[in-house]
Amino acid sequence: MFSNFKPTWMVDAIYKITPEQLQTHGIKAVLTDLDNTLIAWNNPEGTIELQQWLLTLKKAGIPVIVVSNNNEERVRYAVERFDIDFVARALKPLGKGIREGVRRLNLSKDEVVMVGDQIMTDVRAANRVGVRSILVKPIIDTDSWKTQFNRLCERQIMRYLQKKNPEMVWQGEIT
Ligand SMILES: [Mg+2]
Questions:
Q1: What's the 142 CA to ligand 1 centre distance in angstroms?
Q2: 95 and which of 34, 113, 129, 141 could share a cystine (Cβ 3.0–4.6 Å)?
């Protein structure tokens, strides 16, 4: 039960993922959620760590594509300062956006990873497509009721999954 929500890895924050770690697992590109994974609503610039991380991946030749359920206008505005590609209206937990990201990269599914802060959308969508996933801790909790409700459900599913899979613990890197 709930294995569809099980992430491949659990890492404290997106900027802890290094090109070396990715290359070890044959990963050549990163798909990522936007809100609370890459940036917080109250800090659209992103943290210094995030900006440095994007630069490090760029130098390593690892493309990053944002895959977000938000609309085109909102996502474009959010990512244009980072100079990265994006897929809007991704319809996570459906696989549409992730499939589109993989197609644009012209890579196979096992050469791509999906990073996100929600198991019910980001991880579920990745598992549906057969792409490995990295769950990260949300940067900041939003005030929206919908998000609060989702987090409540997520906490319960996580509790269940972690009980069944003791190896599911937060780590500083993907191993
Ligand atoms: Mg998110």
A1: 10
A2: 129
**Contact between 9 and 175 (Cβ < 8 Å):** yes
Q: How far is the CA of 167 from the centre of ligand 1 (A)?
A: 23
Homologous superfamily of domain range 3-164? HAD superfamily/HAD-like (3.40.50.1000)
The C-alpha atoms of residue 42 and residue 123 are separated, in whole angstroms, by 24
Rg (CA), the chain: 15
Q: Give me the residue spans of the domains in the chain.
A: 3-164
* 3-state SS class at 171: strand
| pTM metric for this prediction | 0.95
Residue 68 token pair: 């977000």
57 in Cβ contact with 20 (< 8 Å): no
Give me the DSSP letters along 104-166.
HHT--GGGEEEEES-IIIIIHHHHHHT-EEEEE--SS----HHHHHHHHHHHHHHHHHHHH-T
Q: What are phi and psi of 139, to 5 degrees?
A: -65, -45
For residue 143, is pLDDT > 70? no
Neighbours of ion ligand 1 (CB under 5 A): 33, 35-37, 117
